[in-house]
Amino acid sequence: QVQLVESGGGLVQAGGSLRLSCAASGRTLSSYAMGWFRQAPGKEREFVATISRSSVSTYYADIVKGRFSISRDNAKNTLYLQMTSLKPEDTAVYYCAAKALTYNTGSVFYDQHEYNYWGQGTQVTVSS
């Protein structure tokens, strides 16, 4: 199985940028479709972005579309989330997740229940 560790979170002012990373170990990242999710205090975890095994497909939540960009480097076993034009409402713990796939290298998944493995999360705080 794969282990996931997020990093790159922190405190940033509104309008600023952050890049989150998710390092995978134990298995090669290319075997997994990947996603980013977030959970704000008192709220349920929600979908942010997803990317297919081969990077040919990506999909974003409407609330981050045009501001966030998901990417992956399978050679480095790392997933990224570039966040720009950050807003206070983006404040949350951000989680990366992996879904094992043996086929459909172009498939993406926005339902958190599809994912098999999760990282521990990294806190992002956006001040106004």
Textual characterization of the structure:
The structure is a single chain. This protein is mainly β. Helices cover 0% and strands 49% of the residues. The protein has no helices and eleven strands. Strands 2, 4, 5, 6, 9, 10 and 11 form a seven-stranded mixed sheet that branches. Strands 1-3-8-7 form a four-stranded antiparallel sheet, with no helix packed on it. A hairpin with a 6-residue loop joins strand 5 and strand 6. It is globular and about 45 Å long. The mean pLDDT is 96.
Provide a compact summary of the structure.
The protein has 128 residues and is an all-beta fold. Helices cover 0% and strands 49% of the residues. Strands 2, 4, 5, 6, 9, 10 and 11 form a seven-stranded mixed β-sheet that branches.
| Number of strand segments | 11
SSE sequence, one letter per element: EEEEEEEEEEE
How much helix is in the residues? under 10%
Give a quick account of the main beta sheet: strands, pairing sense, barrel closure.
7 strands, mixed
Return the structural class.
mainly beta
Radius of gyration: 14 Å
- Give the count of helical stretches: 0
**Shape category:** globular
Oligomeric state of the chains?
single chain
- Straight-line N-to-C gap: 40 Å
Unreliable runs:
none
Percent of residues in beta strands?
over 45%
Mean pLDDT: 96
